[in-house]
Design a protein that fits this description.
single chain, globular, 196 residues, 9 helices, mainly alpha
Length: 196
């Protein structure tokens, strides 16, 4: 077994373990994810993971494939248990982008442009969660996003081929998830201080 297999499997295990408390919290109604964002993230993870597989990313792709499933579970649990359902024009833009992002791959048989498109749109699709987190920072679990940043960093380390196609999407997830946690942490302090 190659060390990349161990790192890739560890990233998946960490991802799955971190989602259990998030899903339980969502089921209890304590955490209220933006269900549209989570559904879109599932599509983007699937495209990103498949692109990594096609470009010989090896075990580094596993975390995105597993991430697609956990994102869809998060969206489903959020839908069933009172997650945020407000759908704006920016949400529709992101959903359209998920579909449009597949087209260059189909037309060119090269996933690079699809990865670039989904990376840009994914970063824009994070906006509804950022908006909601800014207003209600206590309704989300920062730990899940920290773990997401970690798992994608491990996924990058587990890649067997480093290219824009295999690295870009995962690197953007490290960045956006880390930024979201920092924002939630700062906003929680402000909200608590304002309440005092």
């Amino acid at each position: 077994m190659d060390w990349r297999d161990v790192v890739g499997a560890s990233a998946v295990a960490i991802s799955l373990a971190a989602m259990v408390p998030y899903l339980i919290s969502t089921w209890k109604g304590t955490t209220r994810p933006h269900i549209f964002s989570w559904g879109i993230w599932g599509i983007f993870n699937l495209i990103g993971g498949l692109a990594q597989i096609v470009d010989h990313g090896g075990p580094g792709a596993w975390v995105n494939i597993a991430g697609a499933g956990t994102c869809w579970l998060g969206a489903l649990f959020g839908y069933m248990r009172g997650g945020t359902r407000d759908i704006t024009r920016s949400d529709c833009f992101a959903a359209s982008g998920a579909i449009v992002g597949i087209i260059p791959w189909v037309l060119t048989n090269d996933p690079l442009w699809s990865v670039i498109i989904i990376t840009i749109i994914d970063m824009l699709a994070f906006y509804p969660s950022f908006r909601k987190g800014w207003i209600k920072p206590h309704e989300d679990m920062p730990l899940v996003y920290w773990v997401s940043a970690l798992k994608h960093a491990l996924g990058i380390a587990a890649l067997t081929n480093f290219s824009i196609t295999t690295v870009l999407f995962s690197a953007s997830l490290v960045l956006t998830n880390s930024a979201y946690v920092l924002m939630l942490t700062a906003r929680r302090r402000v909200v608590v201080q304002a309440a005092d």
